[in-house]
Design a protein that fits this description.
Layout: H1 3-22, E1 29-32, H2 60-65, H3 67-86, H4 91-101, E2 108-110, H5 116-119, E3 125-127, E4 130-137, E5 143-145, H6 146-156, H7 160-163, E6 169-171, E7 175-177, H8 181-185, E8 199-203, H9 212-224, E9 228-231, H10 238-249, E10 254-257, E11 270-272, H11 276-279
Parallel strand pairs: 1-2, 1-9, 2-3, 9-10, 10-11
Antiparallel strand pairs: 4-5, 4-8, 6-7
Length: about 280
């Protein structure tokens, strides 16, 4: 049998396994990760082996306390955000919205911050890590538009992109890989317009905790669900992996579809290693 036929057979078997899982009485909770958005042109953090593709993302404490960390983050974000903002839902997002409309899915919990599920028409979405399209002041709490902040960033740093010594490489979550220390040191970070405080994207950084109300909502949904469907996530981060442990403790079946290893491979009843775009492109 050729490699192509093996691949086709694997995808066909995965589709049948997913169909059986969705046919269980009730509706599953869905947990999605970066693998759902890669076909929209948004890079993921880890490869199939679970290792970081490049550098680790920003940590909350340095961002909160160090101007240099904020300069680095917002400089990269100013350059990388337009690509994120222009991304559109792909076939996986649309397929999940269609399954929800047919009554086959329950709450969709996404670890992504791109809002593509909602833009594809998904109605019951919980943004576990927040949404990048909003900005929050760490001092007064005011939320504002990331698009508006983009204009302020560009106005304060009109020649920044042109001053970089090497081409920009796109990174996950509206970020970009920049290592030009001289340029980063001159980057101007705008303050909160209300209080002059520190602005941060309204997302959960590494080193922060997911708000308890979000976790509680997912756990309530799991109690009523037919199982847990995990799509495009290595589950390396505890904020998502915890729900696999919760599902296992409740005796709920876990179905994982992603490329590469995951932290929950040992407790999942079904694991398929196929591209999500192929899994959801068939009947």
């Amino acid at each position: 049998m050729s490699t192509m036929r093996k691949s086709e057979a694997s995808v066909a078997a995965a589709r049948q396994a997913l169909k059986r899982f969705l046919g269980l009485p009730g509706r599953p909770v869905v947990l999605t990760g970066a693998g759902c958005s890669t076909d929209s042109g948004i890079p993921d953090y880890r490869g199939p082996s679970g290792a970081w593709r490049s550098r680790q993302p920003i940590q909350f404490q340095p961002f909160r306390t160090q101007l240099a960390a904020r300069q680095r983050y917002w400089a990269r974000s100013m350059v990388g955000y337009p690509r994120m903002a222009e991304a559109t839902p792909n076939g996986v997002h649309r397929a999940l919205a269609s399954l929800e409309a047919r009554g086959l899915l329950g709450l969709l919990v996404t670890q992504n911050v791109d809002d593509l599920h909602r833009r594809a028409g998904q109605r019951e979405v919980l943004d576990l890590h927040g949404r990048l399209a909003r900005v929050r002041c760490l001092d007064c709490g005011q939320r504002s538009s990331r698009t508006v902040l983009q204009g302020r960033l560009e106005a304060l740093n009109p020649t920044f992109a042109a001053s970089l010594s090497r081409p920009v490489v796109a990174a996950p979550d509206g970020d970009a890989d920049l290592d030009d220390e001289a340029a980063l040191a001159t980057f101007q970070v705008p303050p909160c317009l209300r209080c002059g405080g520190v602005l941060k994207p309204d997302v959960v950084f590494f080193g922060e905790s997911v708000p308890g109300a979000r976790v509680a909502r997912v756990r309530r949904a799991l109690e009523e669900a037919s199982g847990l469907l995990v799509l495009g996530s290595s589950l390396a981060v505890f904020s998502g992996f915890r729900f696999c442990r919760d599902a296992a403790a409740l005796g709920k079946p876990i179905f994982i579809a992603t490329q590469g290893i995951t932290r929950a491979d040992g407790i999942a009843q079904t694991k398929v290693d196929v591209p999500l775009g192929e899994l959801f492109s068939g009947p």
